[in-house]
Amino acid sequence: MSNPIYLALDLPRLDAAIALAQKVKGHVGGLKLGLEFFCAHGHHGVHEVAKVGLPIFLDLKLHDIPNTVAGAMQSIHVLEPSIVTIHAGGGRAMMEDAKAAAGENCKVVAVTVLTSLDDGDMAAMGVGGSAYDQALRLADLAQEAGLDGIVCSGHEVGAIHKRWKKGFFVVPGLRPADATLGDQKRAVTPRAARDAGASVLVIGRPISRADDPVAAARAIEATL
Ligand SMILES: O=C(O)c1cc(=O)[nH]c(=O)n1[C@@H]1O[C@H](COP(=O)(O)O)[C@@H](O)[C@H]1O
């Protein structure tokens, strides 16, 4: 089985991101480039990181009207990402158009409820029910829209997997048992997420901010 860990390269410097990717490449299955990286380094940065030789997950969390998101999807074909994120909150038509505009061999997955949000945040935003309820609702909508899968926390992935047998499930907000949460509110361990049905485990700071990132990646890999 291939390594499900995608390392989130949330680093401001391109040389540091590439150096980290080179160091841990034997212990992760792919590299995730998100907003911090893309806003700083754009297409050039993605091309440079792709030279490391691992699949690229472009986490742009697109969320706009359908026409604009479809245009953005077309603009990233050239980067040949293996996974791209959009927000399920953009609605069904936006998700359908994003999938139709995606490049070949690119999985389009929708973020349901960010792992940095909890039930209190749902109430503050006027969303009825818990974060869990909302994640399941948006996962159903993403499935109806024909997407490949969703992004959710390890708390919901098991229940969503039961309703969407062939879905592709990206789970971030992962923390080894002794790690600090930071801004993550719905965190589980990498092993728990894997056991619940995650296809991809997104891990950033527990590896990138470790004193020894290779040892940290190895230790997490060993728990799976
Ligand atoms: O789409 C994501 O990858 C994502 C969705 C989500 O709900 N929560 C979440 O943390 N992420 C991303 O996953 C990574 C988590 O990083 P760490 O908390 O440092 O492991 C970051 O790059 C986030 O942008």
UniProtKB/TrEMBL annotation:
Molecular-function GO term, any one: orotidine-5'-phosphate decarboxylase activity
Enzyme Commission designation: 4.1.1.23
Top-level class of the enzyme under EC nomenclature: lyase
Residues reported in the UniProt entry to bind substrate: 10, 32, 59-68, 115, 175, 184, 204-205
Active site annotation, chain numbering: 61
The entry's keywords: Decarboxylase, Lyase, Pyrimidine biosynthesis
Pathway in which the depicted protein is active: Pyrimidine metabolism; UMP biosynthesis via de novo pathway; UMP from orotate: step 2/2
Keyword Lyase tagged: yes
InterPro entries noted in UniProt: Aldolase_TIM, OMPdecase, OMPdecase_AS, OMPdecase_bac, OMPdeCOase_dom, RibuloseP-bd_barrel
Domain Orotidine 5'-phosphate decarboxylase: from-to ranges: 4-220
Function statement: Catalyzes the decarboxylation of orotidine 5'-monophosphate (OMP) to uridine 5'-monophosphate (UMP).
Self-association state and partner proteins as the record states: Homodimer.
Family indicated by similarity: Belongs to the OMP decarboxylase family. Type 1 subfamily.
Annotated HAMAP family: OMPdecase_type1_B
Name of the featured protein: Orotidine 5'-phosphate decarboxylase
Naturally occurring in which organism (per UniProt): Novosphingobium jiangmenense
Lineage: Bacteria, Pseudomonadati, Pseudomonadota, Alphaproteobacteria, Sphingomonadales
Gene from which this protein is expressed: pyrF
